[in-house]
Amino acid sequence: MNKKVLAVSAVAATAALVLAGCSATTEPDASGGDGGLSIDVPDIAMMEALGDNEKEVNIVAWAGFVEPAWSDAFTAETGCTVNRRVAGTSDEMVQLMRTGDYDLVSASGDASLRLIAGGDVQPLNLELIPHFGDDIVEGMKGQIYDTINGKSYGIPIGRGANILQYNSDVVTEEPTSWDVAWEKDSPYAGKVIAYDAPIYIADAAVYLMAHEPELGIENPYALDEKQLDAAVELLKQQNEIVSEYWSDAAAQVTSFTGGTTVLGTSWEVLRKLTEDERFKSVLPEEGSTGWSDAWMLAAESKNPNCAYAWMDYASSPEVNGAIAMNFGMAPANAAFCDMSDEAKEHCEYYNATNEEYFEKVWFWTTPIEQCIDGRTDVTCTNFQQWTDAWTSVKG
Fold first, then answer.
1. 302 FRET partner, CA 20 to 30 A, in 84, 91, 246, 284?
2. What is the pTM of this model?
3. What gap in Å lies between CA 62 and CA 328, rounded to an integer?
């Protein structure tokens, strides 16, 4: 489960994000799904037609995304042997994709723009992926982190929100705001858990959007220096009431079950893993950040036909649903939700087809110098600046 932890970025990774001529084409709302961004990126050709399958496909994936039962069936169907490399962080995925040894990656939004901007992945021909059709939930199409200049670079896998989890034995009234996790006068000071990664700066920005509108934050991943400073100030304030930061999912569960923590940032799957009815969760009124994963194809893939075959196979309702259930997230293919009572229950728990729910979620997007909220009169802060800022928060 330790999949979305951001390590300190290499300078080379950050340099790839210094893009020119950016103008956002999306409206400033949490969904971000109306056509992606318009920015200058390397011009890489898209495959026009499929050829014969090669003998293998090499995939970098999160744990639980490529399991033997599915890959064996895929091999029997296509003749493509699946070679899997499990990665634990987005930074590791970026670096592995840059070795040229891998065809596909299950990238999260905090890695996608780095890969696109660095010329590491290629645009996808959706006509060659039949399962990318009407059953893919609309909220996972055309997102700003994997749709650039009208071209799709990612095939959706699943999504989830970073929710507020709490121990209902201690927090007896359901919270409606994140204030209990951010404000220094929180009655739960010293018992608050927070996510440990530079991308968590966006969580502070979401809170500031609602409580300090004069800062003018329109997108939590598009922060100018003044806005970043405000987010850092809030994070340092929170630091005084935090019991611990988590990056390892098992440690987060232990923190709640052991009583170190009574309230803080979580994923729905982590609440479920506690197997304890005391622990409940809510998406507060300010909204939240979240994550969304997608298959992305290497620019210099040695096995592109097998890679396209995998993206289509893994997008089928059966396989996509199995991945979602195995990992604990909302599937991308909504048709899975009608396949069984178990599937329906899973989809309801993870709000799979509830777009009203996900409209309040700002999916992780790599911060870049060009403001993805459409501003052109200022320079926004990039991922390296966020990494440096996070170091200052942690001390």
1. 91
2. 0.87
3. 12
